[in-house]
Design brief:
binds 5'-O-[(R)-(carboxyoxy)(hydroxy)phosphoryl]adenosine; binds zinc ion; five-stranded mixed β-sheet; 344 residues; alpha/beta; single chain
Length: 344
């Protein structure tokens, strides 16, 4: 089955063509960072307008690279939520119009299911059941996954998402949006011994997270470091390191706890923060000691992309699921509401 995938939930336009027999045939991404950078964050209306400008040319480009035309395709998958309503509507309208014109089904895909299944695009894939840590700009969730569409939420952030915390810490240090990769790069040169940041909620039972206290702690530490209002490069690097260590430690502790609680040995991490090299390395070494394994997507498929939407959509379209005439976008959409897909 040959599926076109379109991602437009936030600030990247992602397009891919995925074949259930041959795998990923082509994919491309247009990032809107240049559009939003001067505002220090995503401006929803500008995001929608940029998707309008970029989505169709990107679809034409990717279909040409894959060597396919509309008549070769079996379905169109697009991100129906969660995300920015205007941005979602651009993708949904375009995808559904194309599908109508080509006489093929369309399917609205859950963005976080796309992230969750992105490791399936790799050669070495995890087997169900597993625990998934979804860490993006909008979500921090631990989920038990028994199959596609069989999700049980084990814990989530009670305030900021991990990616959001990275972005806010970056802003405090004067680093550009999106801050996660910039904080991670600075942290590489920071001294891990200088500051000891708290590990929020690790001493309480349960699998929920909280990152807003860490944000305040970061702000206060930076205030103590300032001399005549200025921060030295060393101060920034040391704070970045302490902040990243605290987030990573917290995530590792909760992942191990979730695996133990569910008596599972397989962990999947996905979403933008799963691109963090320190998080991957720490999880790998911690889990190896317990005979458990961690799987993650290639770095370019950790952050938003069209391939994960094409993949997730292909699994559901192949199982006969598709939009009804009344389908609409879902800016808020609990993943547990998704219908299951029977194992092939
Ligand atoms: O999954 P994603 O692309 O978009 C959402 O669905 O939110 O995740 C974006 C988030 C941003 O908060 C970004 O700062 C963070 O992922 N991020 C990182 C890294 N790369 C991206 N955070 C920490 N370390 C990274 N290397
Ligand atoms: Zn995302």
């Amino acid at each position: 089955m040959l599926i076109l995938g379109l991602e437009t939930s936030c600030d990247e336009t992602g397009v891919a063509v995925f074949d259930t027999d041959r795998g990923l045939l082509a994919d491309a991404l247009h990032s809107q960072v240049d559009v939003h950078v001067e505002y220090g964050g995503v401006v929803p209306e500008l995001a929608s307008r940029d998707h309008v400008r970029k989505a169709l040319p990107l679809i034409e480009q990717v279909m040409a690279e894959a060597g396919v035309t509309g008549s070769d395709l079996d379905g169109v998958a697009y991100t129906a939520g969660p995300g920015l309503v205007g941005a979602l509507m651009v993708g949904a309208t375009l995808a559904r119009s194309l599908a109508l014109g080509w006489g093929i089904p369309a399917l609205g895909v859950h963005h976080m299911e796309g992230h969750l299944l992105a490791p399936m695009l790799e050669d070495e894939r995890p087997e169900f059941p597993f625990v998934a840590l979804l860490v993006s700009g909008g979500h921090t969730q631990l989920v038990r996954v028994d199959g596609i569409g069989q999700y049980r939420l084990l814990g989530e952030s009670v305030d900021d998402a991990a990616g959001e915390a990275f972005d806010k810490a970056a802003k405090m240090m004067g680093l550009p949006y999106p801050g996660g990769p910039h904080v991670a790069k600075l942290a590489d040169t920071g001294n891990p011994e200088r500051f000891d940041f708290p590990r929020p909620m690790v001493n309480r039972p349960g699998l929920d997270f909280s990152f807003s206290g860490l944000k305040t702690y970061t702000l206060n530490t930076l205030a103590d470091c300032r001399r005549d209002g200025e921060l030295s490069d060393t101060d920034k690097a040391d704070v970045a390191r302490a902040f990243q260590d605290a987030v990573v430690d917290t995530l590792v502790i909760k992942c191990r706890r979730a695996l133990k609680q569910e008596a599972l040995k397989t962990l999947v991490i996905a979403g933008g923060v799963s691109a963090n090299r320190h998080l991957r390395a720490r999880l790998e070494s911690a889990l190896a000691k317990e005979g458990a394994r961690v799987f993650y997507p290639a770095p370019r498929f950790c952050t938003d992309n069209g391939a994960m939407i094409a993949y997730a959509g292909a699994q559901r379209l192949a199982a006969g699921q598709c939009d009804s005439g009344e389908s609409t976008v879902r800016p808020r959409w609990p993943m547990e509401e998704l219908p299951p897909v029977a194992a092939a």
